[in-house]
Automatic annotation (TrEMBL):
CDD domains: beta_CA_cladeC. It catalyses: hydrogencarbonate + H(+) = CO2 + H2O. Its EC number is 4.2.1.1. It comes from Antricoccus suffuscus. Zn(2+) binds at residues 51, 53, 104, 107. This is carbonic anhydrase. Its cofactor is Zn(2+).
Amino acid sequence: MPQLTPTRAWERMLEGNARFVSGDPAHPDQDVAKREELTGGQNPFALVFGCADSRVAAEIIFDQGLGDLFVVRTAGHVIDPGVLGSIEFGVELLNIPLIIVLGHDSCGAIGATLATTKSGDMPGGFIRDIVERVMPSAIAARSKAGGAEVGSEEVVSEHVMQSAKLLADRSRIISNAIDSGKLAIVGATYKLHDGEARVEGVVGNL
């Protein structure tokens, strides 16, 4: 199967999301023949870096199947070395042309971060690590609002784009692929009530 361009990969994702939103999913690439075909290797056409929230399963909301998507998920789609290595694997070794950074409303990681900004009390355990990684996005969103208090929607949007830019800033493999035109990163947000993925911005060219 020939590799898609970033533009066509995104169009294919939008087509799948439209099927999901309308309640008429095709459930592609989920039969026995596809399962057996994939024992010889994988050729995913897009990489989704999203939140671990159980309500935002990439293969379902974009109506894709086995072997279609390379998916990396953490709470609040926070970035650490393991995330960067996983995404670099997809870009460098699998030649994936599109990364989608996917945030969503009612995100627990965003909510915990906003609660911390109000109370000043950091959560315990490694949940603190998640909040610390989301905090720059909350600060940036508040700065763009002129210092006014911001809600979760503004922070979700900001965090998606901050994460997309951070991938390109931190990884030479990712930035080189973007500069060559082989890769684009789409920042998108997902609405739980209607199932639609909406574009917040793009790093690179579609």
